[in-house]
């Protein structure tokens, strides 16, 4: 059994954050062949199942950079959280650095998850972060912190390295960027690559090969454990340099093209012309 581990935004989804009919057809064919097809994303599960066509495929889905693992039937198999004390300490550091903060929890994203913010203006984002009452978050009963996303504006990209330097030596966390202007902070146990091995153990299966495809910094973790790593044509140069193969862009059905190039699809019915 081969494992095909697929990122969503910038990879399986096009620039309109949609999955094409071509991609859906490819996913179904890979599944029909008996391969283990996994969605491996920084999104929360609620933002994954909103994508038309995804839920009907019934694929194992690893969310929030490996913080939560769901079976093909939607059963929660594993979760890794940031301790509340650690969250509070990291939050204080981030506030001092003047960045926007999203908090992913078992009750949703506060004040939002990332996908709904695409297209928002600087003023809208600034208002959102300044007016949100983060203290109320910890007043919720049995709240679990899965991830924090620190967001900066495009003219402040140097703050990403500042945050890494401020947090890295002091906290047992994983840090990665799904986009150049963010830093995603999760438990040290949350990792797209570790999640693949964890799933093997949970399901008592063994992958003969792991094929990982992605476009962002948080995909380097799955590239590390992959037999074959594939970067999208729209990925930053650093991500492309870390991959074994570079495919077409997400607006050119690069995922399906890569599967054809690896001869994982039927030769008698090509998906990409």
From TrEMBL:
<dbReference type="InterPro" id="IPR036412">
    <property type="entry name" value="HAD-like_sf"/>
</dbReference>
<dbReference type="InterPro" id="IPR006379">
    <property type="entry name" value="HAD-SF_hydro_IIB"/>
</dbReference>
<protein>
    <submittedName>
        <fullName>HAD family phosphatase</fullName>
    </submittedName>
</protein>
<dbReference type="InterPro" id="IPR023214">
    <property type="entry name" value="HAD_sf"/>
</dbReference>
<dbReference type="Pfam" id="PF08282">
    <property type="entry name" value="Hydrolase_3"/>
</dbReference>
<dbReference type="InterPro" id="IPR000150">
    <property type="entry name" value="Cof"/>
</dbReference>
């Amino acid at each position: 059994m081969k494992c095909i581990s697929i990122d969503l935004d910038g990879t399986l989804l096009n620039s309109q954050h949609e999955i094409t009919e071509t991609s859906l057809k490819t996913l179904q064919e890979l599944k029909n062949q008996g391969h283990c097809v996994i969605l491996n994303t920084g999104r929360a599960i609620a933002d994954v199942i909103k994508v038309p066509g995804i839920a009907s495929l019934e694929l194992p889905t690893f969310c929030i950079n490996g913080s939560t693992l769901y079976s093909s039937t939607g059963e929660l198999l594993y979760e890794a959280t940031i301790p509340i004390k650690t969250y509070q300490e990291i939050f204080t550091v981030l506030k001092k650095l003047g960045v926007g903060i999203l908090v992913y929890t078992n009750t949703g994203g506060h004040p939002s998850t990332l996908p709904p913010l695409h297209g928002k203006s600087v003023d809208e984002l600034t208002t959102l972060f300044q007016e949100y009452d983060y203290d109320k978050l910890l007043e919720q009963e049995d709240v679990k912190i899965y991830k924090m996303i620190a967001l900066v504006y495009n003219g402040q990209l140097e703050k990403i390295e500042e945050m890494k330097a401020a947090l890295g030596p002091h906290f047992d966390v994983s840090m990665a960027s799904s986009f150049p202007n963010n830093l995603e902070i999760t438990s040290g146990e949350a990792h797209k690559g570790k999640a693949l091995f964890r799933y093997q153990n949970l399901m008592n299966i063994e992958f003969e090969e792991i094929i990982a495809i992605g476009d962002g910094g948080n995909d380097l973790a799955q590239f590390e454990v992959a037999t074959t790593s594939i970067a999208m044509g729209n990925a930053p140069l650093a991500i492309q340099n870390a991959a074994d193969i570079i495919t077409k862009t997400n607006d050119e059905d690069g995922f399906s093209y890569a599967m054809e190039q690896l001869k994982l699809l039927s030769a008698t019915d090509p998906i990409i012309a």
